Amino acid sequence: MDHMPWTSADGAVRDLRKRPWRDLRISLTDRCNFRCGYCMPRSKFGPGHRFLPQARLLNFEEIAQVARQALALGVRTLRLTGGEPLLRRDLPRLIGQLSALRTLDGTAPDLALTTNGSLLAAQAQALRDAGLNRLTVSLDALDDAVFRRMNEVGFPVAEVLRGLESARSAGFTSIKVNMVVRRGVNDREALPLAEHFRNSGMVLRFIEFMDAGRHNGWKLDEVLPSAELRERIAARWPLQPLRPTRGGETAERWRYADGAGEIGFISSVSQAFCGDCTRARLTAEGRLYTCLFASEGHDLRPLLRNPHAGEAQLRERLAAIWARRSDAYSEQRERLSVIRIVRPDMHVLGG
Ligand code: SAM
Ligand code: SF4
Ligand code: SF4
Questions:
Q1: Considering every ligand atom, which ligand is closest to the CA of 291?
Q2: pLDDT of 182
Q3: Distance 313 CA to ligand 2 centre (A)
């Protein structure tokens, strides 16, 4: 690899707080067939909402170019997200392209995808066959009425559960289920979901409702701190802490003492984990954000669409962006929210 001022001898890049770049989340579309109130509430994203036209989305070759150079700078995990990523046509072709790339150590990248699960039953096998390693399915309630209310399009929970079963039959061994918990809205669903996924081999993770974007009417009273939720669960099924499997992990891991499996807590509000944050996000139209709360992204499209720009230039641009990063929004939330930064929406950044 050519020497660049931003990288260490092994080619990996670190930011101003010495955090390496390990994860790239790639949003494949800003479109979604759900209208979850905490992300794209129907009141703000009605029939008149204009999504990005197809021509503005990065094509698969452009996405793969960014991924290839990110891997050359130390990234190991590529996570596909959205909007709803399963709405992107021909997705297995992209997965095939990405799984053929290599990390700095010469291994295949860890390829993961986050979905609302609504279209999973039909696509799980093709995704698996194309080389997808890991799946995360969002599921905020087990009760059908609560679930339909939360997705704001009346989508039935049974279809998401069918998607999860199809994923298991397709051979996925690493399946996580993410529940965003809002106090007074769906927190009573936490125990039924925990019970449902005990002994299933799937890992349920509870996410604190975050103040992302500008449209979800976030209020601190609706955040149920993970510690409180963990106590509720442990009162029913005693829990034991587990060690993190890798640095930069977002979830705190616990196991049921009776051996029924593992659960996780993502405490982005009550316990910031910026010190360990190794993630960047690429939007569907090619902007790179170094923090979920960064007010601006770096537009990579001019470089990607410049016929005279080569791979080395793209790698250098990415390295320079990461090397200058100092973001730590969650650690500074209280001070920063007074200033009211303009935050991009979750369905644009991919969560
Ligand atoms: N549509 C896919 C899905 O829902 O899984 C992928 C995109 S979605 C933006 C990615 C993740 O962000 C989901 O697990 C979702 O629950 C989470 N998310 C969205 N808005 C959130 C918020 N305000 N607080 C916490 N998590 C949020
Ligand atoms: Fe769609 Fe996912 Fe946002 Fe829900 S969380 S509206 S499924 S992008
Ligand atoms: Fe990473 Fe920004 Fe979230 Fe902190 S606030 S964990 S730096 S994305």
A1: 3
A2: 95
A3: 34
Q: Where does the pLDDT of residue 342 fall: very low under 50, low under 70, confident under 90, or very high at 90 and above? A: low
Integer distance in angstroms from the first to the last C-alpha of the chain?
A: 32
- Calculate mean pLDDT across residues 249-273: 91
Residue 153 corresponds to which tokens in the numbers above?
């399009």
> 292 CB under 6 A from ligand 3?
yes
Residue for token digits 């890992």? 203
- Percentages helix, strand, coil for the chain (3-state, rounded to 5) are 35, 20, 50
Sorted by where each starts, the structural domains of the chain and their CATH numbers stand as 23-349 (3.20.20.70)
Q: Closest-lying ligand to the alpha carbon of 34?
A: 2
Closest residue (by CA) to atom 3 of ligand 2?
A: 39
Nearest to 175 by CA among 225, 136, 224, 222: 136
Amino acid identity, residue 98?
L
Ligand nearest to the CA of 179: 1
CA of 83 to the centre of ligand 1 (A): 9
- The C-alpha atoms of residue 188 and residue 97 are separated, in whole angstroms, by 42
User: What integer pLDDT is reported at residue 336 of this predicted model?
Assistant: 60
Rg (CA), the chain: 20
Considering 184-188, 250-254, 294-298, the range whose residues carry the highest mean pLDDT is: 184-188
In DSSP notation, 110-150 reads EEEEEE-STTHHHHHHHHHHHT--EEEEE---SSHHHHHHH
Quick one: how far is CA 308 from the chain centroid? 33
Among 92-96, 150-154, 247-251, whose mean pLDDT is lowest? 247-251
pTM of the full structure: 0.94
Give the residue whose CA is nearest to atom 11 of ligand 1. Answer: 351
Tell me if 208 CB under 6 Å of ligand 3: no
| Structure tokens given for 133 | 């390693």
In terms of Cβ atoms closer than 10 Å to its own Cβ (0-12, 13-18, 19+), residue 79 is: buried
